[in-house]
Amino acid sequence: MQRRINRRVGVGNMSEKLKVGILGATGMVGQRFISLLDGHPWFEVVTLAASARSAGKTYEEAVGKRWKMDTPMPEAVKNIVVMNVNEVEKVAATVDFVFSAVDMSKDEIKAIEEEYAKTETPVVSNNSAHRWTPDVPMVVPEINPEHFEVIEYQKKRLGTTRGFIAVKPNCSIQSYAPALTAWKEFEPYEVVVCTYQAISGAGKTFKDWPEMEHNIIPYIGGEEEKSEKEPLRLWGKIEDGVIKPATEPVITSQCVRVPVLNGHTAAAYVKFRKKPTKEQLVQALKDFKGVPQELDLPSAPKQFIQYLEEDNRPQVTEDVDYEKGMGVSIGRLREDTVYDYKFIGLSHNTVRGAAGGAVLCAETLKAKGYIQKK
Questions:
Q1: Of 40, 111, 179, 278, which one has the greatest count of Cβ atoms within 10 A?
Q2: β-strands 165-167, 188-197: how paired?
Q3: Domain Semialdehyde dehydrogenase NAD-binding, which positions (predicted)?
């Protein structure tokens, strides 16, 4: 199966791999991109770009003691000389496309990602800056891959033939939006969700943020609005060359930072117009799949959503790395006294929720012909 897919989308031997650059390569998400792309069958990291203070150093020197991944820094990147991310033409000339994880203000990110796109370099972004740009697709490939079709309208606006921007959504919504998508036929119309979010979502470890030990913080700036609005954009439709968000289900949320390194957990309550049984809901989760599974993409989980029967699951320590961090775990689904059903969801925030989700977007874009060799 894998061999057939690789042939169909034009990926074969090493020399045919697409050349990839990582913008913001020294930060936590940039490091996660590097870890996930080490040995990737379709993509090869050839360029690393960061701020002017890192430029000119080898990647190993630039990161120094700030390597935050559990696995060692891949040998293949250690001696790559970091380029200045602001030297757009120079960086773009070395790659077929880039992943963006730059740490700048929202306006600066918007501007620099468009600059890269205008050099005819596709940008697959982990950042939030372009999530509400009407002709930029914000995609979870199992949920709304058809939104990539808006790229053709975006190219007209940018005046490009192959350059564009695509983004992935907020990390926390991955713990509950896939379940709500799987239950679409039962028409969920009202959702209350509380997310319990890991510190790596802020780019931190416990070493960087000791005050988070034995502590929770009941506020994460901007997160509640993202949790309420971004799923509606995923479920929207392309009209007149832009994505119009859906209007239901209405979502209200609270977001809490908790003393966990990796893994965002959600406690959600749902009202349905059509009243499903628990068995129907569980079966819908197990049956749910999308384009990544159908195409057997390299980073795709075989089983996107797992349902756990045990009362004390999902747990971060047991389940955060399900399907190498690319799957979603759902448990404790039961009838509620106020809403119809409630459940607990869990997803890996820096794998599925960040770099891994962006890599899967890039694989989908490659498979659909949007990203090709320059």
A1: 179
A2: unpaired
A3: 19-151
- Give the Cα separation of 282 and 307 in Å (integer): 7
The whole-number mean pLDDT for each consecutive block of 10 residues of the chain, a chain of 374 residues, reads 36 70 96 97 98 97 94 97 98 98 96 98 97 98 98 98 98 97 98 98 94 98 97 98 98 98 98 97 98 98 98 98 98 98 97 97 98 96
> What would be the CATH architecture of the domain defined by 172-349?
2-Layer Sandwich (3.30)
Q: Residue type for 224, please?
A: E
Q: Among 373, 366, 361, 374, which residue's Cα sits nearest to residue 124?
A: 361
255 is annotated as an active-site residue: no
Contact indicator for 354, 348 with CB cutoff of 8 Å:
no
> Which CATH number applies to 2-170+355-367?
3.40.50.720
Catalytic one of 130, 147, 255, 264: 264
Greatest pairwise CA separation for the chain in angstroms? 61
Q: How far is CA 287 from CA 60, 218, 267, 347, in A?
A: 44, 35, 22, 18
